């Protein structure tokens, strides 16, 4: 463990593409700064809708080969962000995309939504005890917008953080480790409003425009405790998002998912600290997720 870089950041996401949309700039920034950035993705995103007509044959109701294809998209995205440590929870294909809430896929064999939280968390404990991150980033309890795999990723990440620190839990998975700071992904309401105003003014080339309610994790500005200015990494974030071509269409500073509704691409990324001490002065936002971390 002496060989580990000084700063270690772990991000837990549900599907390939979530990491680039939520944290692309943050990941590129810390990777560039020499921090160890570890991404754990919980499913292959097998149930996603496919945007390009030429790849529609991969869809779950046709050839059902979207999962392996998205493994490749994720690898390409990580190359753009300079992140070399990216893994799938329990290994590639251990947990399957559960589809949107209420679908029969929620309860299919291997569906992440139906997984036992403690069992799934065990896989993450192994990663935590080996990488020993000071900072964990994941979703809020609603998964940002209610997708079952996002809610489950939240539960598994939070439970794993607890179990990793518990010296009585699975000593075979490594020495206990307490994560100093845990953040949830957020978007500041003012930034979302400003972004949509910009989008409406620019009239980007998408059939429609989404609404603020469609953006996961939007909260009042007062709930934001950390803000990472990723302006210098805007191009790399956009490139990482483009690498997820089955899921995302990027047009300049805007993008759309499979619903063809344009939304702003945020290069400043927002977080809410939910465990650990803020490194900022009282009432101020942190500009570094590692602020105040001593080890
Ligand atoms: Zn997702």
TrEMBL record:
This is 1D-myo-inositol 2-acetamido-2-deoxy-alpha-D-glucopyranoside deacetylase. Its cofactor is Zn(2+). Belongs to the MshB deacetylase family. Catalyzes the deacetylation of 1D-myo-inositol 2-acetamido-2-deoxy-alpha-D-glucopyranoside (GlcNAc-Ins) in the mycothiol biosynthesis pathway. It is an enzyme of class 3 (hydrolase). InterPro entries: GlcNAc_PI_deacetylase-related (IPR003737), LmbE-like_dom_sf (IPR024078), Mycothiol_biosynthesis_MshB (IPR017810). Its EC number is 3.5.1.103. GO terms for molecular function: N-acetylglucosaminylinositol deacetylase activity. SUPFAM superfamilies: LmbE-like. Keywords: Hydrolase, Metal-binding, Zinc. Binds 1 zinc ion per subunit. Zn(2+) binds at residues 15, 18, 150. It catalyses: 1D-myo-inositol 2-acetamido-2-deoxy-alpha-D-glucopyranoside + H2O = 1D-myo-inositol 2-amino-2-deoxy-alpha-D-glucopyranoside + acetate.
């Amino acid at each position: 463990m002496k060989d580990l870089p000084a700063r270690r950041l772990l991000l837990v996401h549900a599907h390939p593409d979530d990491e680039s949309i939520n944290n692309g700039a943050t990941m590129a920034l810390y990777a560039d700064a020499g921090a160890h950035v570890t991404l754990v993705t919980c499913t292959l995103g097998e149930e996603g809708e496919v945007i390009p007509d030429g790849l529609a044959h991969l869809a779950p109701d046709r050839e059902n080969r979207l999962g392996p294809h998205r493994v490749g998209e994720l690898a390409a995205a990580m190359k753009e962000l300079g992140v070399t440590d990216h893994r799938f929870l329990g290994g590639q294909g251990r947990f399957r995309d559960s589809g949107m809430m209420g679908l029969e896929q929620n309860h299919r064999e291997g569906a992440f939504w139906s997984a036992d939280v403690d069992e799934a968390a065990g896989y993450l404990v192994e990663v935590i005890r080996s990488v020993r991150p000071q900072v964990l980033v994941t979703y809020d309890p609603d998964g940002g917008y209610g997708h079952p795999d996002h809610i489950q990723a939240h539960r598994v990440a939070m439970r794993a953080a607890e179990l990793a620190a518990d010296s009585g839990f699975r000593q075979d998975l490594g020495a206990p480790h307490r994560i100093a700071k845990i953040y949830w992904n957020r978007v500041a309401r003012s930034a979302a409003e400003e972004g949509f105003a910009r989008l409406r003014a620019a009239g980007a080339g998408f059939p429609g425009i989404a609404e603020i309610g469609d953006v996961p994790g939007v909260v009042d500005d007062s709930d934001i405790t950390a803000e990472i200015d990723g302006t210098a990494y805007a191009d790399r974030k956009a490139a990482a998002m483009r690498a997820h071509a089955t899921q995302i269409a990027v047009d300049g500073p805007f993008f759309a998912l499979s619903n063809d509704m344009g939304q702003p691409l945020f290069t400043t990324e927002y977080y809410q600290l939910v465990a650990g001490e803020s490194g900022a002065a009282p009432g101020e936002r942190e500009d570094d997720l590692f602020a105040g971390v001593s080890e």
